[in-house]
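Recall that a protein's primary structure is simply its ordered list of amino acids. Everything else, from secondary elements to tertiary packing, is in principle encoded there. The following example makes that idea concrete.
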Amino acid sequence: MSFPRKTILILLAFFAIYVIWGSTYLLNKIVVTEVAPLYLAAIRFTTASVLIFTIAKVLKLNLAITKRQFFNNVFAGFLFLVYGNGVFVWALKYVDSGFGALEASIQPLMVLVMMRMVDGKKIQKKSIIGITLGIIGMYLLVSQDQIVFQENSLIGIIMIFTCVISWSWGSLFVARAELGPNYFVNTAYQMTVSGILLFIISFLLGETWSSPTTWSVPAQWSMLLLIVFGSVVAFTAFNYLLKEVSTEKVSTSAYVNPVIALILGWYILDEQITGQSILAAIILLTGVYFINSRRIVKPRMHGR
């Protein structure tokens, strides 16, 4: 049995935003323990943008975009990368990476609420069931005694919530905006501008800049994985999915990512996975099924 090329691409893209992005919480936590957060994000996205532009040039992709498309990419990059990611990494200094991933799992709910507010779109019964199961699963994970709040954790929790709002808004914006003919090139523009902005903000805030050669080996490898897989591969897949499937389906990655984060924490850092965690993971994935149970590919609008 053979699958259409688009179906295969969509499945691979979902794998990227589900599994690869699920690992970035752990990777960011490793790096941010010794590198300033906004400086970390600036290096990550600037380097990734250079790689993407280089690959696009080798593939002879058209890099030209209109002024409107450029500014739309700048705005999307700010929502996703400057605020949504840069501030999120900063918040990881004050909360556990697993908790950050769990809090991010409310994104599908935020997307559906925003769609209701902006478009007046009715929330489907299956989506309501999925969101409800997701919230229950998140509560089961968060309510465990093993999750220990660190100093200034309230600040981290509040800032992560604002990051979720930024990502949700960005997801709705990209699904509607005119960004350019190629997802790969769009990603490059978003990361270039965001990287520059993050460097400027990091400098103005007086963050300490250090050479990657002075970092520990785990931090160096984590940054490399963040750049290649977390940025180049997964973020390109994310941009692609926002144009090919419904926004609420793309946002279901926020449910799967915490499960991946827990598994990696157990496997790499020897963190304990309790029976309650396993139950919560099952409920979370069931919620994803209900939200994703309608057909995957949405009809393309004429003129897009």
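The chain has a mean pLDDT of 83. Residues 71 and 179 are 9 Å apart (CA to CA).
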